[in-house]
Amino acid sequence: MLSVTRIRQDFPILKRKINGHPLVYFDNAATSQKPQIVIDAIKNYYENYNANVHRGVHTLANEATMAYEESREKIKKFINAKSTKEIIFTKNDTEAINLVAYAWGRNHLKKGDEILLSVTEHHSNLVPWQILAKEKGAKLKFIDIDKEGNLDLNSFIKNLNSKTKLVALVWISNTLGTINPVAKLIKLSHQNGSLVLIDGAQYVPHQQTNVQKIDCDFLVFTGHKMLGPMGTGVLYAKEKILEEMPPFLAGGDMIREVYLEKTIYNDLPYKFEAGTPNVGDFIALGTATTYLNSVGLLQIRDHEKKLTLYTLKKMSEIKNVEIYGPSDVNNRGGIVAFNIAGVHPHDVASIFDDYGIAIRSGHHCTMPLHQRLKLTASCRASFYLYNTTDEIDCLLNAILKVKKVFGVK
Amino acid sequence: MNIYFEQIIDLYQHPRNFGRLKKPTVSHEEVNVFCGDKIRMDLGIKNDQIIDVAFGGSGCAISIASASLLTDMVHGKKLALVKKITKENLLQSLNIELTPTRLKCAWLSWEVLQKALKKL
Ligand SMILES: Cc1ncc(COP(=O)(O)O)c(C=O)c1O
What we know:
The complex is a heterodimer.
Chain A: H1 4-9, E1 17-18, E2 21-22, E3 24-25, H2 36-48, H3 59-78, E4 87-90, H4 93-108, E5 114-118, H5 127-136, E6 139-143, H6 153-159, E7 164-170, H7 182-191, E8 195-199, H8 211-214, E9 218-222, E10 233-237, H9 239-244, E11 255-258, E12 263-265, H10 279-295, H11 297-316, E13 321-324, E14 335-340, H12 345-354, E15 357-358, E16 360-362, H13 367-372, E17 378-382, H14 389-405
Parallel strand pairs in A: 3-15, 5-6, 5-7, 7-8, 8-9
Antiparallel strand pairs in A: 1-2, 4-10, 9-10, 11-12, 13-14, 14-17, 16-17
Chain B: H1 6-13, E1 26-31, E2 38-46, E3 49-58, H2 61-74, H3 79-82, H4 87-94, H5 100-118
Antiparallel strand pairs in B: 1-2, 2-3
Helix pairs in contact in B: 1-2, 2-4, 2-5
The structure holds pyridoxal-5'-phosphate.
């Protein structure tokens, strides 16, 4: 069991009042809040050992480099990668996907090849592939979903063929909350000779990740959704694949020897990290993983499961509220998208804000999924370790308030 | 901050000039990139005067109420006058205070109108 009361004390922002009400933060799928030790890690870095990494011999440079590389080690452990050579730091999840599309895609795709995605992808796992496909004359194929928003396995198998070079899939849908059975899909893809990229933006922060177990070729995730600072993204890729890939961005740090006409690239992972990195924030991301481990990922998942179950049960008792996504919380992360009949999600979110409740409204960067569901927009509440059932009661109450304002029965 | 006054809810639930014109002189649709909401406006113009107007689309209470008010404001007006309507004029008739993101909702219909007029 989580001691949520104790955990909440670690997050200074949770003391805030919004419009006279205690903040109820249910926009965790957009970004998580940060515990004091993460904020302190950034402060400590800038106050005590700020220096550029990998290039100085002075004390500060050594300390900064050591802390930065220690953070890489922590992240390697957090997802159980084999080696820190497989951990590449990027700006965010989006940049990590673009890195793969650019450095791997441009060298491995040819005319007529196919990339298999799902209709639930976040725009960041769709647009880079659209651009790549257009450039290469390749084709995008899409796995459909069933009525509850689970991936349709038949649609997956039907679309997987000898032309499929890459399967790029979201692990947990940021709109429906669906947990995709990635281990099984990766196995089938590998049997077909396709590589697999998993978008772990909504999974890695909330559940125990083991890249060796699921055997993905690429995993991307983003630090700001897992208690870490913004501007910290991670690309995991198997060492062998990274070795064969040309660099993404070019310049300092990614080189070994430079001559006027040619350059010998640096070893992994530095080959893919050009220029001065976001040192302080990545150190703080390492601290965030320490914090998450101290609470326990299994406990966090368990807690979110309870919150989700409670929400689904209570919300479905309210008339004229439509809920999207799987009904079985075993297949669902702590994300609940819904609509109140006749009320636009923006208006719902505005009224919620009057009561201090932060939710997301709109298409959540999944326009094609909304089109597939025949919706223009939805409301989304998403949970994390510091949320409580009392807060969910606030949300349920606020739904009643919205219905009253708009005269919904 | 309460912005959901009766007038707004009423305009949202019973928008005026909602629908399509059979033969619009000009028609334009815009999407609010922030949320995907869409507003389309059809204008029927004769002798530099808007003789008929209709709008459609999907949006929040603020964007629909605002489009409803704007279409009322321009109906029967000379184009020269319509071109003088500012975003602030529209906000005044909405008579609510909005945060920057919600201002985009209120202004969407105004932008649609401006772009429609540019097509003439
Ligand atoms: C599933 C998914 N993929 C990708 C992203 C993009 O993350 P970022 O904006 O940090 O690049 C998000 C979050 O916005 C997401 O939920």
